[in-house]
Amino acid sequence: xxxxxxxxxxxxxxxxxxxxxxxxxxxxxxxxxxxxxxxxxxxxxxxxxxxxxxxxxxxxxxxxxxxxxxxxxxxxxxxxxxxxxxxxxxxxxxxxxxxxxxxxxxxxxxx
Length: 111
What we know:
The protein is mostly helical.
């Protein structure tokens, strides 16, 4: 359930906004609160993220999510993998567009 894409997006968001709530994170990722909670717990179990309650209260906004040194390293590796994947997607789409343009040009010259 925790794909590299979500791992990348969550680690990136937590690095930028460690005080983000799970609800806000879920909204930004476009996934359910339950899935967000599951993914965060998986990252915590793997030692990539640690959670601190910086306010001693029941306020959920009182939590801060910090990337551990392992989390920073994992984020860097995942970023490289994610970039490679997106570049491959881009090249495939670019080739498909070129083929479609060729098909359209061929069909126009037939008429």
